[in-house]
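pinning this so it doesn't scroll away 📌
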Amino acid sequence: MPGTTYTQHALTLPSYPRGSHLITSDITSQLSTPLKDIKVGLLHLFLQHTSCAMSLNENWDSDVRKDMSDSLDKIVVEDKAGKGIYRHDAEGSDDMPAHIKSSLIGASVSIPITDGRLALGTWQGIWFLEFRDGKHRRKVMATIQGEKA
């Protein structure tokens, strides 16, 4: 009788510049071995940082990612002129807006697993949104739970 299994995997994303990036293939390539053994389950991805985010969204048209980044920059403005918009500015003018955007979008996503594959919708992909100007190596904790095949 199959039982429920739980595994965790520490992943490191490639360094991405500021913006919205499709990372579905980065995630699935790093998790191909443990995913293939799951008949039905759940992948939970948790981004271990406070100035970037993860989301599920459009995976086909890259303009959607550009529009998302532009829209978030308009919603949460950066204090490039040093007018004192934010109290927390010791790490640069992009830091506090990055924290706000991270809170708005979120640091985690959960995706169903069916027959060893992510059960994403036709146009869905896993997004990584980098809100800081400098490139960073970002860490993701992946938890896979489910019934083995």
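📌 and the second one:
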Amino acid sequence: MAESDEIDRADVGESRESPFATLQKRVAGLKIQESDNTSHEEEDDEPQVVDRIESLCINCEDNGETRLFLTKIPYFREIIIMSFSCDHCGFENTDIQSAGQIQERGAKYTFNVTHVDDMERQIIKSDNAILRLETLDIEVPAGRGRLTNIEGVVCDILKDLEAGQRQRKKEDPDLWQKIDDLVQSLLTMALNRNFPFTITLDDSSGNSWIEPSSADKDGKYLKSEYPRTPEQNAALGLGE
């Protein structure tokens, strides 16, 4: 990649702090409290620590800690945030999973990103969901639950595509060029210069979500539900 690309890339995501970076900072500082059966209405939206577990760090193979937090996402439902941190090497990782049951029907969301403010829309991607950046024909397969936003999705895809590009340029220049074209398109998306584009989120478990807005009109935001196929039920561990 050219030096100018490196400079542009450094600007991605630095124009503002993601609301989920803020959420992660909030949960990282929480401590498990003894329950006193006292209701604090003003704290209903705060993540509640429900457990902490000593866990192996995949980065340095020493022991770190996984904290489990129960939190409610407005206009959606409760989720469990699993936040891992390692004091030895500083590695951190956050996953999510639904705190409820598999829904009766699958759900698919289609969202047209047309403005810089849309980049901050929340996304919950369960480990069963398939996310597609339709405009560039890029698919993020099922696996690893995520709590993020549109900007975070674009930046994660960009990071994944860039991995190994230096070696790829030496070994397979044609493939490098195709991926580099996608990287350049993603950079302009991340830097808010390439609207509109379309994201879809398809979850057979019904436990994923894209944040809606009362201002969404003219097909900007669509949600559809569908009956699962027998194969989808089997993949979710459901009987007939």
